[in-house]
Amino acid sequence: MSEPTAEPFLRTLAPLLKGLERQLRQWLDARRRYPVTLVQRAEIEGLADDYHRKSSSLDVDRPLLVIMLMGGTGVGKSSLLNALAGAPVAQASFTRPTTRDPVVYFHQSVKSERLDPALRLCRFAQHDREALLQKVIVDTPDLDSNDLINREKLKELLPVADVVLYVGSQEKYHDQIGWDLFKEQRKRRAFAFVLNKWDRCLDAGVGLRPDEDLLKDLNAEGFENPKLFRTTAQLWIDAEKAGQDVPADLPEGEQFRELRNWLEAGLSRLEIEAVKSRGVSQLVEQSERVIESVKPPDLSVQAARVRTTWEAVLTTEAEQQAEVLVSTLEPYQQEVEHHFSVQGQQRFWGLMAGYLRVTTKFRYFSTSLKDRLPFTPKLSGAISTPDDWNLTEFVQSCSRTAAERVLTQRLSALSNKLLVEADQKGMPLNLLNDQTTEATRLQWEERYTRGLVDALGQVEQEVTKPTGWRRLVRGGITWLANSVPTVTLLGSIGLVLYQVFVEGVVPSLVLLLLPLYLTLGVLIVFHVIITVALPVRWASIRDDFRSRLGLRLQTEFEQVFLPIPDAVATAVREERKQVEAIAAETREVAAWLREREQAAHIGELYGR
Amino acid sequence: MEPQTHRATARQLAEDLGWLEEHCRKHPELTEHAAHLRLAGALTRNVIGPAVDGQPAKPLFVAVVGGAGAGKSTVVNFLAGSVVADANPQAGFTRHPTAFLPATLGGAWPSHLGFLGPLQRLSDEKPANLDEDVYQVKRIPTSVGDPLADVVIWDCPDMTTWASAGYVSRLMEVVALADIVVYVASDERYNDIVPTQFLHLMIQAGKAVVCCLTKVREVNEEAMIADFRAKIIGQLPVSVGEIPAVPVMAIPWLADDVRKDLAGLGAKYRVGLLNQILALCPSPEIARQRTLTNAVKYLESAGNGLLDVARRDLTEFDDWRATVNVGRSQFEERYRREYLSGEAFRRFDRTTEQVQEMLELPGPGKVVSSGLALLRLPYKYAREFLGKTLTRPASLNLSEQTVCSSAMVSWLDALQAEALRRSGTNTLWKQVTHGFDAGLKAQANDLFAKNYHTFELKETDELDQAARAVPERLTNSPILLSGLRVGTVALDLAAVVAVIVFTWPPGWALLLILPAVSITRQLVELLVKFAVDRGRNKLRAKRESLLSEQLTGPVATWLGDWPSSGGSSLEKLQLVLRRVPDAIRELSGLARPAPALTSLPPAAVPQP
Predict the structure, then answer these.
(1) Which residues does chain A have within 8 Å of residue B74's beta carbon, measured at their own beta carbons?
(2) Which domains does chain B have, with CATH numbers?
C-alpha cells in the first residue's frame, strides 16, 4: 500500500464538493414551477450543508477523523471515553441523563479552529497521545431520555461524525430509538459497535446472548462482519484509580483493549483517508438518490396531447359564446340593418343618395324612438343605444351585458374544464392551475367587443363589397340607379320646357310637376330593385356573423390558452435539464471517487 | 339500565374504539392517539365489560411492566415467592404476556366474552418469545396464607426494543386489565422517554401503580428515588390534574444467588414490594371498584380527546360540502341569469286573452260588445301598428335544458378541479379524485337526468296551474265575474253618455265617442295585464325554489354525502363518532366514589 497518493487526492475533492454545493444552493434559490415537497427541499438543504462541511474538513493537510459515541442514556458512553482517556474527562454519574454538553477529546497540537463549527461549542478535553493525533473522539448526549433537547444536540452533531461508535448495554442494545437512528445514518457514515457492561450479558438464559443477538441483527442489516467490541468500561476506570494496568477480574471475552488498539493503531493514516473518502462517496451516492427523486418528468408528449384536447374544448366554447353574443344582439337587429343600409348607400350619389337618405331616416325613425318613449316595452338588462349611431359604443354595451349575464361565469367554468381535461391527459392540474386561472381574469370584455366589431366589419365588407356575379349585378344596378333618375329628371324638365316654349302648351300644374313625379317614380322603382336584389336583412347575415364571430373568439381563446401547456412543459423541461446537469456532475464525482477507492481495512465498518 | 343493554353497549364501544385506533394507524400524524385509543378499548373490554357482566372481584390482577432488561422477571419472582420466570439477557426476548395463577385460586380463570380482546390463550406451554397474539397461563404453587393468594401476576413484554412495535398492543391489553401495575425501571432506564410515556399513560388511566427502581446502588438509593419523583412523576402531563400518590421503592443490583433465594436473602425486597401492593388494595372488592371507576373516569375525561382524531377528517368533509354548495349556488345563479331572466312565459299571453274574453258580455249582451268593438277598431289598428314598430324582438333565450345541463357540467368540472387541486393534502380529496376516475361524473349525471325529468314535469304542472289561476278564480265566483262584466260595460256606457252629454247637441263632436271607449278599454286591459303579470312574477320566484328543491338540492345532497357513502371509512367514522360519546355517557353510571390512591408510610409496614 503506497501512502503518498492519498494526500493530494483528498484535497482535490474539496473544490469538487464545493462546486456541487454551489449547484445545489442555486437550485434551492431558483424559482421553480414543478412542485417540490418540503421533505425533498429539506433533504437538498441537508446535502448542501454536508457538502460544505466535508469540503472544508478535507481542505487541509491532515484531515481529522471524528469518532462519535452514540447510545442511550446510562449505557456508559462517558465511562467509555474516560476509560479510553485514562482520566475523568467526561462526567459520569448515576443520575440520568448525565451528559448534557458533548465532550470533544483531541490532541493538543490540533487547533480548535480546525474543528468543525458544530464541535467548537462543546467542552474540550485535550491530550498528548501521538497515536490519537489525527482522531477526535466525541462523547454525545443521550438519545432516549425525557430531555428531548439532548436528542436534538446529538442530531446536530451527527453530521460531523466520520465513524459512529454505537454503544449499547445489555438493556439497551436492542432499543428502538437508537436502532432507528442507526438505520437512518448507516448509509452515511462508518459504524462500529460497542456492547458495554459486558459483565451483565453473561447470565445464562433461554434466549440468545446479547452480542450474538446484536450480530444477528447487524447481519440482517447488511453488516456481514461488523466490528463489535464487548467492553466493561467501569472495570478499567476502577483499575486506573487503583493504579492497576489491567483490571483483576475481567469477564471472559472482554475486549476493551482491542477497542483501544483499534482506535490507536487500527485506524492508521491510510484507514483515515479511506474512511474520509468513503464518507464522501456515501454522501455523493445519497445525493444521487435525492437528486433523482426531485427530477421533474418530461411532459412534452403530455403537453401536445393536452393541446389537442384543449383545441377541441376551445372550439366548442367559442361557438357557444358566439351564439350567446349574437343572441344578445337580437333585439337590436333593426339598428344593425340600419347600419348596413347606411354603409351600403355610400356608393350612391346624386338624387338616388338623397332619396335613400330620406327614406332610410323615415324607415328607421322608430329605432331612435324605442328607447326614448316612456311606454314602450323595455328589455331587462337593456343596452343603451347611443343617440347618434355609433357601432363601437353599441357593441361595447352589448358585450358588457353578455359578459355580465353569461360569459364571466362561463369563463371560470371553462378554466375548470380545461384543467380537468389536462389532468386526465397526464399534466398535473397544479402545474397549469395558476396560469389558466389567470388567463380567465384577463380583460375579456374588451376582447369580446373587439371580436364583435371585427366580425361585424367582415360581414359588412362582404355585404357592401360583394364578389362574383353579385358584384356585376350590383355594379349595374348602382350605375343605373345613379344615372337614370338624373337623366329622367333632366329629360322630363327638357320635355316640359319643350312643350311650353316650343309647342306653346299652356302650362298646367300636372305638366309642371311632371319631372317631379316621374323622377320620384323612377327612384321608387330603383329602390324596390335595390331592396330585392341586394337585401340587407338581419336573418340573412345572422349565421354568417355568428360563424365569423365564433372563429374570431376561437382565435382569441387559442392565443391565450393554447400556449400554456407548452410553456409549462418547456419550463419543466428546463428544470429537468438543470437537475440532470447536477446529477451528471454528481455522477462524475462518484465515478472519480470509485476509481481511487483505497485498499484499506475499513470494509467491516460499512453494511451493504 | 339493564345489564343486558350495558353489555351490548360495552361490546360495541370496545369495537368502535378498536376501529378508531385502526383508523389512526393509517394516518401517520395520528399515531400518537392510537395508544390512547388502544388503552380505552382495552379498558372497555377488560374492566367495564366484566363489571357489567357481573364477574367477581377475585382474582385481582397485577401486571409487571418495564423496558427491556429492567428486571421484570426478577420482580415477578419476588411477587410469586418462587422462581417462576426466567431472567433473560436477550433484550426483548419475551413477546407475549404470561399469567401466573396461584394454586390457591383452584384454576378459576375469567371466562368473560371478549376478555383480553384479540389475545388467544395458549393451551400448552410455549417459550416466551412466541411472537403471536396469545397469552399463556402458568400455575404457581402458592400457599393459602400468602398475601397474594388471590392475585394473578402478569409478566409482560417490554415496550422499548425495536421489535416492540409489533407486540406493544398485547402489553396494553394486559395493563388495561390490571388492578395494580408494577412499573419496573432500572438505574439505566428510569429517565427513558418511551417507558416514561407509558407510565404517564397508566397514571392518566387511573391505574394503581407501584414503581420499582432496580439495579440501584444502595448508596444512591434515596437520591435516585428523589430524582425519579422529581423528573418522572413530577412531570406528568397537565391534563392529569391532581397527581395521585405513586409509591416508589428501590431494589439494588442483585447477584444471581440473591435473586433466586426468595425465602432467604431476597426476602426483604419481597416484603417491601408486597407491602406497597397490599397498601393499595385493602380488599379485592375495593381495589376492583377503584379499577372500574377510574376506567370509566378515564373514558369520560379522555372521551373528547379520543374523538379528536376524527376532527380533521370531518373538517375536510365540511370543506367538501361547502365546495359542493358553492357549486350549487353557481348553478342556481346561472339558471337565474341565463334562463329565468330572459324567459317571458308566453303561456300567460293566452291567459290575458282568455280573461279579456271572459269579461265580454254573454248572450244578448254580445250585441253591445260587438258594437263597442266596432267603435274601437281604429284605435286597435293604430295600436297594433305602433306596437310592431316600437317593440324590439326578444333576444333568443337558451333553452332551459341547455342551460341546466351545461351548468351541471361546470359544477362537476369545478368539483373535480378542486379535488385534484387538493388531492395531495387529505385522503378525502384523494378519495373524491379516485371517485371521479371511477365514474362519479356519470353517476351524478344520471341522478341529474332523473331529477331533471321530475323537475320538468313539476314545472309544466306549475306553469299550467299558475296560468289558469286567474281565469279559474273568475269562473269559480260568478258574482265577481258578473260584477266585473257589469262594471266594464257600465264604464263603457258611462263614457258614451258622458261624451253625448258634454257635446250636446249632436254633431261632429260625437266622434269623440271613439277615443272615449278606447280609453276605457285600455284601462281594463291594463288592469288585466297587471293581474296576470303578478302571476307571472310569482311563478318566476316559485320556479327558482322549485329548481332548488327538485334539482340542485337532491344533487347537492348526493354529492355532499358521496364521500361518506358506499361503506367508506367516513361513513363509519360518522357513525362511530355518534355512538362513542353516547356509550361513554351510558356506562358512566358504573363509576362510584373510590378510595383515593395512597401509599403507606414506611413505618407502618406489617410483617407477613
Answers:
(1) none
(2) 59-276 (3.40.50.300), 318-390+400-579 (no CATH)
